[in-house]
Design a protein that fits this description.
By secondary structure, this protein is mainly alpha-helical. Helices cover 51% and strands 5% of the residues. Helix 16 runs parallel beside helix 18.
Length: 486
């Protein structure tokens, strides 16, 4: 009887699915209370099953979750102030972090040496990354990877990217590499002490001690080996330095610090010398390196060698890579930079950087999409402005530079007495909602005119031929209302 029922059921499924093999059905979920999220989750699960993912694993990972607004806020809203480079460095290269690194170096001793021999990556660089990513496992992982990744995929700004991370997360569980309960992560879904995304975990994480598990959460040897494997895979050159602090000759052309590379021998020919006066070796002289002025013409000057770029592939930031290298030196008992930071020249906060980018664009210097973050495009625009103004073209933004750009653009720092009145919280929230309907990215409509909102207002004003102020005022609200009605 059972056999007959089974045959009947199989025949019915085959008829329902048409010719060929019966289709695997995607999982179903209890409503999260957010209809839009539920629709995205059902659609993603259907597509994931079609790609070969296990419906049972999808149900395990995606059941009982809903989008976390705090994650969206963290993703969309950057800090109001961008720290000056000297604060960024000094707040991370601390005595406490150095002591922890020295202790970990002693604890793992032989294991670190074996890992370095296997992958060719300096163990102190590995420790520097480990220290920054998780304070050697002391930083809390307050989120779960399924909820973090699902929230960011649903939010939509980088949907394809985070859906791919979710697919990789499913594979981790399907292959028994981790259980759902073990998937603790950052708000962005980065997992474990080295903060790997799921696809990186699948391709890079290492089971160093051979216990059958690539444990980047609690196993220090696996963590160190996994970071080392990542750097090796990204092109680490064993035995080569990361950077050299250098001294520049009088009358040096600072525009050469434009990100282009030259051999150390060529830099030497331009009068660049190591800060301590020591000579470069023949193997050093063939390195293809770039000049980096992290705080402009009056601050430290560094020649960045290829391994510096490899560290940047772990986190795409010059400051990050510099801190990793300085921590590595400190773990070895070596000193930091010789040249003092020029704190007296000051540094721009995010609002000021956003204004600088907008004004440079209006003057014909392409700083890219204004976002308040000082990246390579903005640095090139600053350098071009400085060149035209017959100033040292070091690409470093200061309050004095912003004043000059404002003057050139004919912009007043303070609003005129008859300027339109600013909006209250309710008005800002309405304006934000209208701007979102018009396609501007502002993050949450929270009634606070933060950097993302001001950036959207500037773009709106530019498109509608208004004065570009970035201020949330009644005239901007009225114009946005009109634009939505059209």
């Amino acid at each position: 009887m059972r056999r007959a029922l089974f045959a009947l059921a199989a025949t019915s499924m085959a008829m329902a699915c048409g010719p060929g093999l019966a289709q695997v059905q995607p999982p179903t979920f209890t409503s999260s209370g957010n209809a839009d999220f539920d629709g995205w989750r059902d659609d993603f699960a259907r597509r994931a099953v079609a790609l070969g993912r296990d419906p049972a694993v999808l149900r395990q990972l995606l059941s009982g979750i809903s989008p976390d607004d705090s994650i969206i806020t963290l993703d969309q809203q950057q800090p109001e102030f961008v720290s000056p480079v000297w604060d960024y460095v000094n707040n991370r290269v601390t005595d406490r972090r150095i002591a922890a690194g020295v202790q970990m170096r002693a604890t793992l001793g032989t294991t670190l040496a074996q890992i370095q021999q296997r992958y060719g990556v300096d163990s102190d660089i590995v420790l520097g990354i480990w220290a920054l990513e998780s304070n050697f496992g002391q930083a809390p992982l307050n989120y779960t990877a399924p909820q973090a990744l699902a929230t960011l995929a649903f939010e939509g700004r980088r949907r394809a990217q985070f859906e791919n991370y979710l697919l990789a997360l499913c594979q981790m569980v399907e292959r028994g590499l981790a259980t759902p309960d073990e998937l603790r992560s950052s708000w962005a879904g980065a997992m474990g002490q080295p903060q790997f995304m799921p696809d990186i975990y699948l391709s890079i994480a290492v089971d160093w001690d051979g216990d059958g598990k690539r444990d980047i959460w609690t196993n220090n040897a696996d963590v160190a080996a996994s970071i080392s494997h990542y750097l090796q895979d990204r092109g680490w050159h064993a035995g080569e330095p990361v950077f050299d602090e250098v001294r520049l000759p009088g009358g040096f052309d600072f525009s050469l610090a434009d990100g282009s590379t030259r051999s150390v021998s060529d830099w030497e020919g331009l009068g660049v010398r190591r800060i301590d006066g020591s000579a470069w070796t023949p193997s050093d002289r063939i390195l293809q390196s770039q000049l980096y002025l992290p705080a402009g013409a009056t601050g430290p000057a560094l020649l960045l060698h290829p391994n510096f770029g490899v560290i940047r592939r772990y986190n795409n930031s010059d400051r990050y890579a510099l801190v990793v290298a300085l921590l590595a030196r400190a773990f070895q008992g070596r000193g930091g930079l010789v040249t003092a930071w020029p704190q007296q020249v000051g540094s721009l906060n995010r609002d000021q950087t956003l204004e600088l980018q907008t004004l440079l664009n209006s003057l014909g210097y392409n700083a890219g999409m204004p976002d308040g973050l000082f990246g390579s495009g903005t640095r090139r625009a600053v350098r071009a402005f400085q060149t035209d103004a017959h100033q040292p073209a070091d690409g470093f933004p200061t309050a004095e530079l912003l004043r000059q750009v404002r003057t050139r653009a004919g912009v007043s720092v303070d609003p005129p007495a008859d300027a339109p009145r600013a909006l209250d919280t309710r008005g800002v929230r309405e304006l934000q909602r209208l701007l979102k309907r018009l396609g501007y990215r502002i993050g949450a409509a929270d009634g606070s005119a933060g950097p993302a909102t001001r950036n959207a207002i500037r773009s709106f004003q530019r498109r509608h031929h208004m004065d570009i102020t970035g201020r949330a005022t009644r005239d901007v609200l009225a114009a946005a209302r009109d634009a939505v009605r059209q």
